[in-house]
Each structure stands twice: as C-alpha cells, then as structure tokens.
C-alpha cells in the first residue's frame, strides 16, 4: 500500500510481493478484511497508546505537548502513509458494528486526546480559543494530504520519492505553521 | 461520489442514480475514464480560472488575497468533495501522457499561484518566510481531510451530514488558524 500509494490491493498481489501463499491469509486472518483489520489494529493501537501517554504526562506544558504531538503525527504518516485512507475504507466497508468498533477504539480516543491537549492550553492562556474537533481535522489533514500525494510530487515536482529529508522539512514546516496558528499572541 | 464519500463508482450505479442509460456514457464520453476526465476538466478549469484571476488582481494586498483564497478552497471542497481523491485516482490510473496532462493543466498552475500568492506576501514583509510548496499541501490537506471524512463525523460525532453551518464554521476556523500561522508578527 505504501509503494503503490493506494489501499486497493488484491490478495494475489500481496502473495506475489510477500512470496507467501495466499492460503496463509485465510489460515491466519480468515479473509482479506480480517487481514486489513489486523493491520489497522496493529497501527492504531501503537498510536492510541502513545497519544494517551503524552496527554498523561505531568511534567510537560501544553505547548511542548502539542509540538511533540504534531511531530509524531508527521513521523507516523511517513511510516504508515496508508493509514487514514485504509481506516476510511474499513469504516465504509464494515457493517454498523464493525464501523462503530473502529470509531470507538481508534478515532474517538484520538479526538478526546485533542480535547485535552487543546483544552489544557486554552485554559492556561497559552493557546487561542480553538475548536479541538476542527483542529483535529486541520492537523491530520495537513499531514495526510502531504504523504498521500507522492504522485503529485512525481508529476509536479519531479521527485517521486518521499525522502527522510523531505519528511524532516515537512515536519518542521507543519509544527511551525500550526503552532504559530494556535499560540496566543 | 459526493453521497457515497467515494470515487469508486460503477457505470451501472451511475445509470441507476441518473435514470439514464449507460450507453449514453459510451456515446458522449467513450467510456468511464472519458466521463471522469470530463468531470475533472469541468471542475478544475473553473478553479484554475478563478485562482489565476485572484493572483492577477492589482487592487488587493497579499493578506486579503490569501484570506479570500483559503475561503474559496473551503467552498470548493464543500461543492466537489471528491475532487482530490478523483484527481489522484486519475493520475494513478492514466498512462504517462494522461498523468502529465492532469499535472500540467491543473496541479502545476495551482502550485505556481501559491508561489505568487506567498512570494508577494513574503517580499512585502506581511508573511513569514514559508515554503509555498509545503504550504500548498497544508492548505489543501486541511480542507480535503475535513470533507473526506463524513464517516468519521457519523461515528465519532453523531452527525453524517455536512451542513452549510459546519462548512461556515470550518471556513472561519481554517482561515483563522492558517492566517495566524503565516502572518509575520
């Protein structure tokens, strides 16, 4: 998914790339949806654990926490650039129970973390009075769009590799512009 | 595509929704790719014309131009929320020539507009020294993500309609946070 900049993958392509028999998928995960759900669980559990730990930190002020968080979002999307699209795909393709499980386990905890991260800073007078729900879309969108557009890079900017140097530049840019956007003057 | 929050549509579904025979698609557009290319052309041409006109305005300062532009991006994504995903899909599914045409006609002109919009403001000392290429991803990402996630809204925030009221709130939020992020203090 990372190489192809897409979440449309087939079991046969997966089998080709991994050199493993696609029957193994059936054995371990039941079917393709089971495999993708396991991937989602693996990626999201790491994120939720890490965000919760950041929110719980007593020895860090709201500005430092948010700065650290935005940095980590950039690194996460560099590591798993397919995550948002895969999540949306799974929510859409799941039944009501499956969709609600993804929302309850992964999306809502992140949103609640934003309520805390932003709320603490607003109450401390460090942040302007920003809506955490809208801010959540601002941050994840700004980062997701960047990594979801390797093809734009290829045809507009003549580079189709997302290098670590570019990741570092974008991390700095994103932290810089969003912190300037939220900090009380 | 707007209703389903997806660019995966079939000609038979299209025919069902529109009440028109799918043979008409073949008659007018050749095939599904032809139809989608025509849609892309229609949507993008309006955007490129409007952005070019904004950049060319002599009687508006860089701050007012950028403010107006971010507002319009929000309105555009509200009107055609599928546009970015459809564009990426078409770039990916086209051959080299087709992909290059989309990049040259639609993506590069917008990027050049950003170079002008941001460059003018930086030179005038109104904006901080921000990279226009990275800024382009920040703006379009922040807006795209919001509208691409009606499903998140449904399961996390118990509303699956993107109302005009929410669009207006998000427009104000986005203009506010991004302008605060870029303006020189």
Explain how this protein is built.
The structure is a homodimer of 185-residue chains. Chain A has 185 residues and is an all-alpha fold. The model of chain A has no long low-confidence stretch (mean pLDDT 87). Chain A has one domain (36-182): Orthogonal Bundle (Tetracycline Repressor, domain 2). The longest helix of chain A has 28 residues, at 96-123. Chain A is built from nine helices and no strands. At the A-B interface, α5, α6, α7, α8 and α9 of A face α5, α6, α7, α8 and α9 of B.
SSE layout and pairing:
Two copies of one chain form a homodimer.
Chain A lengths: L10 H8 L4 H7 L2 H25 L5 H18 L3 H11 L2 H28 L8 H16 L2 H8 L6 H19 L3
Q: Which quaternary structure do these chains form?
A: homodimer
- Can you identify the CATH class of chain A? Mainly Alpha
CATH superfamily of chain A: Tetracycline Repressor, domain 2
- Specify Rg of chain A, calculated over alpha carbons: 18 Å
Unreliable residue runs of chain A: none
| Average pLDDT, all residues of chain A | 87
Order of helices and strands of chain A: HHHHHHHHH
What class would the helix/strand composition of chain A place it in?
mainly alpha
Query: How much helix, percentage-wise, in residues of chain A?
Result: over 70%
Q: Biggest protein-protein interface?
A: A-B, 48 and 48 residues
Q: Report strand % of chain A.
A: under 5%
- Known CATH architecture of chain A: Orthogonal Bundle
Q: What is the 3D shape of chain A? A: globular
Number of strands of chain A: 0
Number of domains of chain A: 1
Note the gap between the termini of chain A.
Answer: 42 Å
């Amino acid at each position: 998914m990372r190489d192809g900049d897409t979440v449309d993958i087939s079991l046969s392509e997966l089998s080709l790339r991994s050199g493993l028999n696609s029957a193994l998928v059936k054995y371990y995960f039941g079917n393709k949806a089971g495999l993708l759900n396991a991937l989602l669980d693996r990626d999201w559990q790491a994120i939720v654990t890490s965000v919760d730990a950041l929110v719980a930190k007593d020895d860090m002020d709201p500005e430092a926490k948010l700065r650290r968080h935005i940095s980590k979002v950039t690194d996460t999307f560099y590591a798993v650039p397919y995550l948002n699209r895969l999540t949306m795909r799974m929510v859409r393709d799941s039944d009501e129970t499956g969709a609600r499980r993804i929302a309850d386990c992964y999306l809502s905890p992140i949103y609640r973390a934003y309520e805390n991260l932003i709320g603490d800073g607003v109450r401390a007078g460090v942040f302007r009075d920003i809506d955490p729900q809208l801010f959540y879309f601002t941050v994840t969108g700004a980062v997701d769009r960047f990594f979801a557009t390797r093809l734009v890079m290829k045809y507009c900017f003549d580079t189709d590799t997302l290098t670590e140097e570019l990741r570092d530049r974008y991390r700095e840019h994103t932290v810089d512009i969003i912190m300037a956007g939220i900090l009380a003057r």
